[in-house]
Amino acid sequence: MSPEADDEEVTRWAHRAGRGDQQAAAAFVRALQGPVWRFLAHLAGPAEADDLTQETFLRALRGLPGFAGRSAARTWVFTIARRVAVDHVRAATARPRVAALPDWQAAAEAAGAVTPGGDDAITLRGLIAGLAPERREAFVATQVVGLSYAEAAQVCGCPVGTIRSRVARAREDLVAAWQGDARPARGGRAV
């Protein structure tokens, strides 16, 4: 909270912002933005704090018209921030862990197909480009972009199980290609 704003002043800004005062809304956010960011950085990590702070203030600003003032606005916003952090952690733990699945790159490294600092990144991009289109789409969405399987299913317009299957088959194809045992992808061309 800015040194010049106390809890009562921040609460007054919250009430005025809830009635549509844009300057009060800006003052409210400025007064609490730093402390909320620091709070979220400790709960979820500094890399996530910017996005979570933004989500906190989006929720708070939407809720200001209904803010009753039973507690200080600062307390109310930190309660929202905590919920945002909990929602973030819950969503992150609901995502399938890529590390728990067989790692195609680790398998390629173990087979001696990858050498650090070599042209392997170029080779890997070429191998990914050689996957059957539906496998490449699922693999890149989940393993490169980082979408959850459910998100990738929405993007690709197919069931989650299909995404899981396509990613698994793409991994198998990539490992085989790294090992020099390129075989035709089911329903596609040789990898």
Structural class: mainly alpha
What series of H and E elements makes up the topology? HHHHHHHHH
Mean pLDDT: 78
**From the 3D coordinates, which CATH architecture of the largest domain would you assign?**
Orthogonal Bundle
Number of domains: 2
Beta strand count? 0
CATH fold description of the largest domain: Rna Polymerase Sigma Factor, Chain: A
- Give the DSSP E fraction (strand runs of 2 or more residues): under 5%
Most strands sheet: none
As a whole number of angstroms, the C-alpha radius of gyration is 24 Å
Judging from the principal axes of the Cα atoms, what is the shape? elongated
| Fourth CATH level, the homologous superfamily of the largest domain | RNA polymerase sigma factor, region 2, helix turn helix motif
Give the helix level as a range of percent: 55-70%
Identify the notable features of this structure and list them briefly.
mainly alpha; Arc Repressor Mutant, subunit A; 69% helix; 0% strand; RNA_pol_sigma70_r2
Summarize the model shown.
By secondary structure, the protein is mostly helical.
Tell me what the structure shows.
This protein is mostly helical and 191 residues long. The chain has 2 domains: 1-96, Rna Polymerase Sigma Factor, Chain: A (Orthogonal Bundle), CATH 1.10.1740; 115-183, Orthogonal Bundle (Arc Repressor Mutant, subunit A), CATH 1.10.10. Helix content is 69%, strand content 0%. The chain has helices at residues 7-18, 22-44, 46-63, 73-94, 104-110, 120-129, 133-144, 149-156, 160-178. Helix 1 packs across helix 2, helix 2 packs across helix 4 (73-94) and helix 8 packs across helix 9 (160-178). It is elongated and about 70 Å long. Residues 184-191 have low confidence and may be disordered.
